[in-house]
Amino acid sequence: MTAHETELVTQWLGPRDLVMTIDHYDGRTGGSYRYIHTRGDDHYGFFGGGRMRLIATSLVDSFEGRDAFVASGMESGVREGYERLDQLLAR
To answer: Which residues on adjacent β-strands are paired with residue 21?
Structure first.
């Protein structure tokens, strides 16, 4: 992923009140990514014209881990991130 593409991802992924830093991003099929959201000292955690498909997969080790992941508020962050993506793509 180029620096420009990385900058675009940080503009839409996640809630507005957090800053995103991409540590690793391999967008190929079977690839992986790692990013960190920060708020102060706290840590959490283009596509040219035409269309794209975005598939996001989160893996956890247990049902308890899944439940904690969902309870963390990630649902609202994901929803807000997709709203931000819509805004970015509309430019």
So the answer is: 36
- The CA distance from 25 to 18, in Å, is 19
Residues 62 and 68: their CA atoms lie apart, in Å, by: 10
CATH number of the domain that residue 78 is part of: 3.30.530.20
Confidence band, pLDDT 50/70/90 cuts, at residue 81: confident
Residue 74 DSSP symbol:
I
Check residue 10 and report its DSSP letter: H
Q: How many domains does the chain have?
A: 1
Report CA 50 to chain centroid distance, whole Å: 21
- pLDDT value, residue 42: 44
Structural domain boundaries, residue 21: 3-90
